[in-house]
């Protein structure tokens, strides 16, 4: 399972991040695509040359991003959506065709705001074309975020769906509107300290903090993680400065992280949070920690060679 969140600090700097929950790593690294990299979209997509920084692998000299952000502060992450995602089997005339594997790169190379992406998506076909035989098409949906808002993009049998994500969270199946509606089941949850009550002659006193959020789901399934991440993200107090906001980002994501042994996949392998990654538009920096190395490491866009035309990995 995967979880993504977005928030802004008091000065409207966006922070965006995700947990990548899976049973194995693909050997992903922090990957920088300079503006002069020769990106050739597979179909008729454009390249407007924004520099891109994120997490991914390089296949056939193409950066395949799991999540990334660009030099304009626009970020995108792909999360599993099997059983619901259904891309077009071939390109469609008179539309902009984007292969599923290049979708995050196409978004980050071309746009400066969520509004611009949402407008462009009105005429986009996402095509089920694998990059090669080794990597089958991944069935995903995406969250796209900037300093103003986030959207969720789902391409299903009924075509393109773009949802305004006013809760700034995404996980996996089912569709975004189901997650959004399910939150109503938890509107009783609240961080306030519960006051003592009387039931008849008995005085009942809380035995500590936390009772008012009783019922918040603690299990790792996708709908429960959505509720938990939404609750944590919405109630975390505003913070000032880079360090406290990066802490906020990683702590919020840790509330929905998967611990090895909690949940097995169909093949019997346990899912775990392989890595947590995040982007600060405040300092244009990517951050990453892994399951085995929880140290949060920083990768500033400025530390890569912007004048090169070569992909750079760290
Ligand atoms: C497995 C990852 C999603 C994690 C997730 O959402 N887990 C949920 C588990 S569950 O189903 O809900 O149980 C996804 C996110 C991004 C994906 C990768 C990116 O899309 C980039 C390429 C795309 C290629 O088509 C396949 C390899 C790949 C390298 C993908 C492998 C895998 O599908 C990734 C890594």
UniProtKB/TrEMBL annotation:
Its EC number is 3.5.1.24. One of its GO terms (biological process) is lipid metabolic process. It comes from the Bacteria. Residues 2-304 form the Choloylglycine hydrolase/NAAA C-terminal domain. The keyword Chloroplast does not apply. It catalyses: cholate + taurine = taurocholate + H2O; taurodeoxycholate + H2O = deoxycholate + taurine. Pathway: Lipid metabolism; bile acid biosynthesis. Keywords: Hydrolase, Lipid metabolism. GO terms for molecular function: choloylglycine hydrolase activity. Belongs to the peptidase C59 family. NCBIfam families: bile_salt_hydro (NF038245). This is choloylglycine hydrolase. It comes from Bifidobacterium pseudolongum subsp. globosum.
């Amino acid at each position: 399972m995967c979880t993504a969140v977005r928030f802004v600090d008091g000065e409207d700097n966006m922070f965006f991040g995700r947990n990548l929950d899976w049973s194995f790593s693909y050997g992903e690294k922090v990957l920088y695509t300079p503006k002069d990299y020769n990106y050739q979209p597979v179909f008729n997509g454009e390249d407007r040359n924004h520099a891109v920084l994120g997490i991914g692998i390089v296949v056939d000299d193409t950066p395949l991003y799991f999540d990334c952000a660009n030099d304009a502060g626009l970020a995108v992450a792909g999360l599993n959506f099997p059983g619901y995602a259904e891309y077009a089997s071939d390109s469609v005339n008179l539309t902009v065709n984007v292969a599923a594997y290049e979708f995050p790169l196409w978004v980050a190379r071309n746009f400066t705001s969520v509004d611009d992406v949402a407008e462009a998506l009105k005429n986009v076909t996402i095509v089920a074309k694998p990059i090669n035989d080794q990597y089958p098409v991944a069935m995903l949906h995406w969250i796209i975020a900037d300093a103003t808002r986030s959207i969720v993009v789902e391409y299903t049998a009924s075509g393109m769906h773009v949802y305004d994500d006013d809760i700034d969270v995404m996980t996996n199946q089912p569709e975004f509107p189901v997650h959004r509606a399910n939150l109503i089941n938890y509107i009783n949850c609240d961080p306030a300290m519960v006051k003592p009550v009387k039931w008849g002659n008995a005085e009942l006193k809380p035995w500590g903090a936390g009772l008012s959020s009783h019922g918040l789901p603690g299990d790792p399934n996708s709908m429960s993680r959505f509720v938990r991440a939404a609750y944590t993200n919405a109630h975390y107090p505003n913070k000032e400065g880079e360090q406290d906001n990066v802490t906020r980002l990683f702590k919020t994501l840790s509330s929905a992280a998967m611990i090895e042994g909690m949940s097995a996949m169909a093949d019997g392998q346990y899912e775990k949070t392989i890595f947590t990654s995040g982007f600060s538009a405040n300092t244009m920096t990517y951050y990453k920690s892994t399951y085995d190395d929880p140290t949060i490491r920083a990768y500033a866009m400025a530390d890569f060679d912007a004048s090169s035309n070569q992909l750079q990995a760290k």
